[in-house]
Sequence to fold (169 residues):
Amino acid sequence: MTSERHFTLLLPPEPATVGVVNAAVPRAAEALGLKGGAALRLTLAVEEVFLYLLGAASRERRMELEVVPRPTSVEVVFGFEARTLNLGALNLTARADAGTYLEQEDFVQVGLLLAAASVDRMRLEHLGSGRMLLALELDRDYPEPSAPAHIDFEPQGTLRLERSPAADL
Fold:
């Protein structure tokens, strides 16, 4: 279920649309509660994934990009169609070495490494017929709680310590 306060872009799968993504995502993320630095981190991840998907997604259908508020985070969901997709660099449990991508023709995967390191969670759903959803989620920053105020109080009556107090005390 998505909130009514979400932003949706329908984008032609063309490199020229990356400027639209770079302008819209940080503003939408800030409107949904991410502060400046976090909004830019999310934008970096979204840009890298978008550029990667341009090479993998079908050219016949528009790509959907949705910025959705979650209770403690902001999520960007890509909706696209692709027959083959190699998202190995997004696998955070694998030991990824950026140097190996520099030596291979898989250099485009370096952007996915950056995206994976920039967000807190990712999710991939296959909807059938080549249709997929890829979600990137970044937690909001919350201020550290302030120290509790010092409370001065005067004990009422006599103060005494009991080694083994009775249950009624």
In short: The CA atoms of residues 139 and 148 lie 25 Å apart.
